[in-house]
Amino acid sequence: MANETFLKVAYIGLKQPDGAMMINVPLYVKVSELNKSGMTDTQEKVISRITEIMIKRYEKQLSEYFASLKEKSKKEEL
After folding, report:
1. What percent of the chain has pLDDT over 90?
2. Which residues have a Cβ under 8 Å from the Cβ of 7 and sit 6 or more positions away?
3. Could you say which of 6, 8, 43, 73 would form a disulfide bridge with 39 (CB–CB 3.0 to 4.6 Å)?
4. Cα within 13 Å of Cα(34), Cβ side
5. Range of the domain at 68
């Protein structure tokens, strides 16, 4: 138990009876070893995959936004 490592993985948000936020309680998992970046290999893979997905999503949103601006600009010229 001397050199156990725990990583914070999430929070549980506790609410008051009226629905207002009261406190966030962190959740931890015990990990066996960390790589040189300070994460487990699984964490690094998950973060990398999520990053890829989010980049694709934002690229699509940006291209749609610029296309709509271009279309709006064409309509205003007429």
Report:
1. 15
2. 28, 29, 31, 39, 40, 43
3. 43
4. 11
5. 5-77
* Both structure tokens of 65: 């936004």
How much of the chain exceeds pLDDT 70, in percent? 97
**Tens digit of pLDDT for each residue in 14-40?**
888 888 888 888 888 777 777 777 777
Query: How many domains would you assign to the chain?
Result: 1
11 beta partners: 26
Distance from the first to the final alpha carbon of the chain: 74
